[in-house]
């Protein structure tokens, strides 16, 4: 939904980030002006930060595994055992990978 449509939809009970930014923009109570472009920048920053964090964790985990050939070998073996014969792997199938959990 575009920002313009959100402005015209009236009062809502369940606000999200865009609604809060629009409310602050309309109130004009901040020391800085909130423009449409600054709202877009905030939203992009949030999505970018979430993506960057995930990729950093995966990169770190892979580099730690590369330091230990024994760990890589065992992880591969457990993955092959858990998914042997499956053509499609679903997110729920990941629960079978007990070795990769830090429990």
TrEMBL record:
Belongs to the cytochrome P450 family. It holds the Pfam family p450. The lineage of its organism: Eukaryota, Viridiplantae, Streptophyta, Embryophyta, Tracheophyta. The keyword Heme applies. The keyword Iron applies. GO terms for molecular function: heme binding; iron ion binding; monooxygenase activity; oxidoreductase activity, acting on paired donors, with incorporation or reduction of molecular oxygen. Keywords: Heme, Iron, Metal-binding, Monooxygenase, Oxidoreductase. This is Cytochrome P450. It comes from the Eukaryota.
């Amino acid at each position: 939904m575009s920002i313009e449509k959100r402005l015209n939809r009236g009062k809502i009970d369940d606000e999200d980030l865009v609604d809060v930014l629009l409310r602050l923009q309309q109130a004009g109570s901040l020391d800085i002006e909130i423009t449409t472009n600054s709202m877009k920048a905030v939203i992009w920053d949030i999505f970018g930060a979430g993506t960057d964090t995930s990729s950093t964790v995966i990169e770190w985990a892979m580099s730690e595994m590369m330091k230990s050939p024994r760990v890589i070998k065992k992880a591969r073996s457990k993955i092959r055992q858990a998914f042997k014969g499956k053509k499609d792997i679903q997110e729920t199938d990941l629960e079978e990978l007990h070795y990769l959990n830090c429990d």
